[in-house]
Design goal:
Arc Repressor Mutant, subunit A; Alpha-Beta Plaits; about 25% strand; disordered N terminus
Length: about 170
């Protein structure tokens, strides 16, 4: 759906990253996270910044980007992204109820902007509530009409390919 409106896959990834939750990022980390060249990410960051959808702030020698909450279309874009993901409220509930979740990633097709009907997530944390996870998998399908596959890792290996939707 979103990928039919926005033809640049990199731009879709950036919109999902910045408008799914209150995320921020800088060029090199985004390029690594998306497994894209820094040039393609830079071009899209510049376009979104020029359109006023993103704000760029200097933190030392690094330029950090985040969604512009004051943009007139902020809520509409956030709503589109939430509908595309179908996981906005659900992610928040999972993260809050699972225990000490350090990071949550959406990986697979959804991270690429493709609605395949299955949402793949990776939660990073220790001593997470696995019984709640089993309960929420069934509820998720009822709520968002998509199968959810969740993988749990004790530590972030540092090379996960996907969209970080919770944590830093």
């Amino acid at each position: 759906m979103l990928d039919s409106l926005v033809t640049s896959k990199t731009r879709v990834k950036l919109l999902l990253k910045f408008f799914a939750h209150r995320n921020s990022g800088y060029l090199r980390s985004l390029a690594k996270e998306f497994d894209e060249s820094t040039n393609s990410v830079r071009v899209e960051l510049n376009r979104l910044t020029e359109a006023g959808l993103l704000l760029a702030e200097d933190e030392g020698k690094t330029k950090v980007y985040r969604a512009n909450k004051q943009h007139p279309f902020f809520e509409e874009i956030k709503g589109m992204v939430s509908k595309f993901l179908g996981l906005d409220d659900l992610m928040e509930k999972i993260v809050n109820r699972m225990g000490k979740v350090e990071k949550a990633y959406i990986v697979g097709d959804y991270a690429k902007g493709i609605d395949s009907g299955t949402v793949q997530m990776i939660l990073v944390g220790k001593n997470l509530d696995l019984s709640y996870l089993d309960f929420i998998r069934n509820k998720t399908y009822e709520k968002v009409q998509r199968k959810v596959e969740v993988q749990i890792l004790d530590e972030d290996p540092g090379n996960l390919q996907g969209i970080l939707v919770f944590g830093r």
